Amino acid sequence: MNISSIYGLTLEQLTAWLNEHGHKKSRAAQVWDWLYRKRVTAFSDMVDINKDCIQLLSDHFVIQTLHENLKQESADGTIKFLFHLQDGNLIETVLMRHKFGLSVCVTTQVGCNIGCSFCASGLLAKSRDLSSGEIVEQIMKVQLHLDQAGKDERVSHIVVMGIGEPFDNFENMTDFINVVKDHKGLAIGARHITVSTSGLAGKIVEFADSDLNVNLAVSLHAPNNELRTRIMKINRAIPIEKLMQSIDYYLEKTNRRITLEYILLKDVNDRMEHALELADLVGDRRQLVNVNLIPYNPVDEHSQYQRSEQESIRLFYDTLKKQGVSCSVRLEHGTDIDAACGQLRSKQMKNAN
Ligand code: SF4
Hints:
Elements: E1 4-5, H1 11-20, H2 25-36, H3 51-60, E2 61-62, E3 67-73, E4 79-84, E5 90-98, E6 101-105, E7 109-110, E8 128-129, H4 132-149, E9 155-160, H5 170-181, E10 193-197, H6 201-209, E11 215-219, H7 225-231, H8 234-237, H9 240-254, E12 258-264, H10 272-282, E13 289-295, H11 310-322, E14 326-329, H12 343-352
Parallel strand pairs: 1-2, 6-9, 9-10, 10-11, 11-12, 12-13, 13-14
Antiparallel strand pairs: 3-4, 4-5, 5-6, 7-8
Bound molecules: iron/sulfur cluster.
């Protein structure tokens, strides 16, 4: 039987749970401090918590449910972790070093049902959602790795862009964000957290209405329905018009900038005409939109797609800029390891078969 991860509870939930079990509210703050500030990995290490409470916690929760299966470190400091879960499933988590800090990319599901045609992860249908505890624990495992290195480094940013569609696991993703944001714990600023969706319009509206206040990125990848349906089959159910309506709702409601992700695939969506069409689509949302161009990392599983030429990337970028669209080209991390999302996991699973 799998016991729940204690990391799955927000401070509010932990307080209520302990209270229901006869412990005063201040006990939760103490436990929280041991988990997220002192970062112990066993309840018995919480030395100022009374024995009854330690026993109660040990009977109902565990601290560690993820186990490191493999770790790949790149020359640029990127580290890709492969963890196995209590049920034996494998997930990936990535630590990236930037000038502005250390960011971690987390996985939210085992497999993914969205089926983007360029993605190594999308080849394996979703077998289950990750619990909020399993998502939080990815951050904790990376933070513990940093703690052990003894350089006093902290995870400062989070991108929810790993395997899975976070909006298809909305409640657990929400709890995860509330745990990592909590100022008494990891205290990762809302502005330092970005959730990326393939474009589930209804959930974008729900996200806009929530009080999470974190950043949103939407995978667009094509400027028209025909091309987007080829690249992302989700576009059949949620075409660009419907997606843009939900984005407009988000912009209106939050007045926060949004990122449109655009993966550049050679001779598929990387021509100047596509850049012009994209600029038209952004239209008068320019003030609140940034387009993030992502040079494609080829994977064996999708040999139909190649990386765009450097010249095409430059031309695409320049064209958007000339049209007044704010854009950037994503810096690559870990190019000497299995850099593409899901690559390490799929390689490991093939090896096991
Ligand atoms: S890119 Fe993301 S949403 Fe699309 S199949 Fe891969 S994991 Fe799923």
